[in-house]
Amino acid sequence: MNLDNTFSALSDPTRRAIISKLAEGDMPIMELASPFDMSLPAVSKHIRVLEKAGLLTRRKQGRVQYCRLNVKPLRDAAKWLAFYQQFWDAKLDSLANFLEENSE
Amino acid sequence: MNLDNTFSALSDPTRRAIISKLAEGDMPIMELASPFDMSLPAVSKHIRVLEKAGLLTRRKQGRVQYCRLNVKPLRDAAKWLAFYQQFWDAKLDSLANFLEENSE
Questions:
Q1: Does A89 have pLDDT greater than 70?
Q2: What pLDDT, in 10s, does the model give residues A4-61?
Q3: ipTM for the complex?
Q4: CA B64 → CA A32, B41, B42, distances in Å?
Q5: Which of A30, A93, B39, B88, CA to CA, is 20 to 30 A from A43?
Q6: Inter-chain contact B23–A84, Cβ cutoff 8 Å?
Q7: Do B3 and A23 touch (CB under 8 A)?
Q8: In sequence order, what DSSP letters do the residues of A72-97 get, joined into one string?
């Protein structure tokens, strides 16, 4: 199931940081890898996990490999979580009611 | 980091199904385990993963162990994903603009 791969890909801080960096725009792999204190093969491994989860696509332009963020799986994950929003909203509603009732 | 455990816990369909069942209300472990086509120890293992991620708490009432959903980690995960909403909203905005411009 796709959500399995998405949530699994998101469970690593380096992969979340890569996603966050790609949100600024398409980026060559070398530039994407540079801020991370790890080898290029180690970053490439994370990139492959993101690619397998459909969160990232690569394209070659001349000799440079560019990475692009694909937000569709993030939207699906957000949709799954959105159902549970009613529970934290309910708690906030109770708090708002309490504050209102006790503010006079 | 907490998001690591949360996203990792959510990467399994049985664990997502347990969360979805607990959204109906607190439930004894036996009742929670019954719809799954797996042994009680196998379900218990998933429950421990959810517990470690802070998504589930247990309490004993007499001889029965009840499980309760804790939505706080789900809210944190949803917050992380919310940043990326601008990207799919932007696409929908473009579509809305296109339809508006071409509807006359």
A1: yes
A2: 999 999 999 999 999 999 999 999 999 999 999 999 999 999 999 999 999 999 999 9
A3: 0.86
A4: 52, 16, 19
A5: B88
A6: yes
A7: no
A8: HHHHHHHHHHHTTHHHHHHHHHHHHH
Pairing of strands B27-28, A64-69: unpaired
Q: How far apart are CA B80 and CA B59, in angstroms?
A: 30
* pTM listed for this prediction: 0.86
pLDDT of residue A103: 67
Task: Say yes or no for a CB contact (<8 Å) between B11 and A4.
Answer: yes
Q: Name A76's Cβ contacts closer than 8 Å, sequence gap at least 6.
A: A2, A3, A6
Q: What is the pLDDT of residue A95?
A: 65
pLDDT one-digit tens code per residue, A65-78: 999 999 999 999 99
Contacts of A28 (CB under 8 A, 6+ apart): A64, A65, A66, A67
Contact status, residue A68 vs residue A29, Cβ threshold 8 Å: no
Contact residues on chain A for B77, CB-CB shorter than 8 A: 77, 81
C-alpha to C-alpha distance for B38 and B12, rounded to whole angstroms:
14
Q: Closest Cα of chain A to B60: distance in Å?
A: 23
